Amino acid sequence: MPGPVFLCGLDAAVDVVGGKWKALILWALSVEPRRFGALRRELDSISEKVLIQQLRELERDEIVHREVHEQVPPKVVYSLTPRGVALDKALEPLGAWGVANMDHITGVRTFAAPARS
């Protein structure tokens, strides 16, 4: 079965980090490896189901590494792979743009007139 066909590099990158949560998971893991519960607390608005799904997709794309420590109870730690670190660094300018424009975005979205039909 052939893999996906991307129009350009940006298309491939957005496919990997698409959605609201994947970039935030990368951001959280860029600080330090974390257990599932710590990620869940850090991203308190994400549901457990969605976090599991997003982590599985990032693991499939070899962005996130899942390490299981054999103990009772089992300990699972998530960390960024070298490819994940590179992706996180590539997203840094986008984050800087967001910080620089956050007030403007909030303002125009708060006071924007509703769209006409």
Our count of helices gives 5
Mean pLDDT: 92
Stretches with pLDDT under 50, minimum 5 residues? none
Structural domain count: 1
Proportion of residues in extended strands: 5-15%
The name of the CATH topology is Arc Repressor Mutant, subunit A
Largest sheet: 3 strands, antiparallel
The CATH homologous superfamily is called Winged helix-like DNA-binding domain superfamily/Winged helix DNA-binding domain
Radius of gyration: 17 Å
Order of helices and strands: HHEHHEEH
* Sheet with the most strands: spatial strand order: 1-3-2
Oligomer: single chain
CATH domain class:
Mainly Alpha
How many runs of DSSP E, i.e. beta strands? 3
Name the CATH architecture.
Orthogonal Bundle
Dominant shape: globular
Helix-strand category: mainly alpha
Termini gap: 43 Å
Summarize the structure.
The protein has 117 residues and is mainly α. The protein has 5 helices and 3 strands.
Overview of this structure, please?
With 117 residues, this protein is mainly alpha-helical. It has one domain: Orthogonal Bundle (Arc Repressor Mutant, subunit A), CATH 1.10.10. It contains five helices and three strands; from the N terminus they run ααβααββα. Helix 2 packs across helix 5. The N and C termini lie far apart (43 Å). The relative contact order is 0.13.
